[in-house]
Design brief:
By secondary structure, the protein is an alpha/beta fold. The chain is about 20% helix and about 30% strand.
């Protein structure tokens, strides 16, 4: 048994994921982090399926407070899964169709199981289990090693990130979203995520609209049944059959 999934790159860390029964939208950004073309691509992606909108945290490059105004002209059945910090600042923007998650929370929404992991920056990462498919969306949970990061802090960041990866490796991740931030020498741990977790389909994110560095992912020796979505512009898509 399996499912065909289609994933559309919106911008930065935002993706629209289509399954036969429902759709997921991850971390639609706001302001300068969301080009008009990204909105145009998103509008063309909607269909009659129920929509689940995930937000990992409240940073502008991951959260759009105008989300309801954006999606309601195109879909009538939708639910929000948001982090605790978003609700603290934007409670009036959300209604009864909203689920607020803190780290380690687990919920089941319409047979979609969601677990929140604590980010080492802000908010949550999510492990989503749906019809036997495991999807990991990292948000800002990453290996944040900056040039001025002190050794003790660096060790803590690396250890925490690797502990999460070791746990994910035991889960059989079919689709994994993790950071490939071009500002960082280690890209925020994306390559380490790919090598340790080995998802069936790896989606690099947190690219700030820069794509040249993603070509480095082609140089990684991976099993033949693993695939990487190397996009180069807004609106790029990938389709994959997930065998479960």
């Amino acid at each position: 048994m399996g499912y065909r999934v289609k994933i559309t790159y919106i911008y930065h860390s935002s993706f629209f994921v289509e399954f036969p029964e429902c759709n997921f939208l991850f971390d639609l950004p706001h302001g300068d982090h969301l080009p008009k073309l990204g909105i145009d691509v998103l509008r063309k992606s909607f269909n009659s399926n129920p929509l689940f909108v995930f937000f990992s945290h409240s940073h502008d490059d991951h959260f759009n407070p105008d989300i309801e105004d954006i999606i309601t002209p195109f879909t009538s059945e939708y639910k929000f899964i948001i982090s605790y910090d978003i609700y603290a600042d934007y409670a009036s923007r959300f209604g009864n169709n909203t689920y607020i998650l803190e780290p380690e929370d687990e919920v089941n929404i319409d047979n979609i199981k969601i677990r929140a992991y604590e980010s080492n920056d802000l908010g949550n990462a999510y492990l989503i289990s749906f019809n036997g498919i495991n999807i990991y969306y990292g948000g800002d949970l990453a290996e944040w090693i900056w040039p001025d990061t002190k050794n003790e802090e660096k060790e803590f960041i690396q250890n925490y990130f690797e502990e999460i990866l070791k746990e994910l490796r035991l889960q059989k991740i079919h689709i994994g979203f993790s950071n490939m931030d071009p500002r960082l020498k280690n890209f925020g741990g994306g390559i380490k995520f790919l090598q340790m977790v080995q998802p069936d389909l790896f989606i690099p994110m947190h690219t700030f609209g820069r794509y040249d560095h993603l070509i480095k992912l082609k140089q990684i020796d991976m099993p033949l049944d693993k695939e990487i979505f190397i996009y180069s512009k807004i609106g790029d898509k990938i389709e994959k059959y997930i065998d479960v």
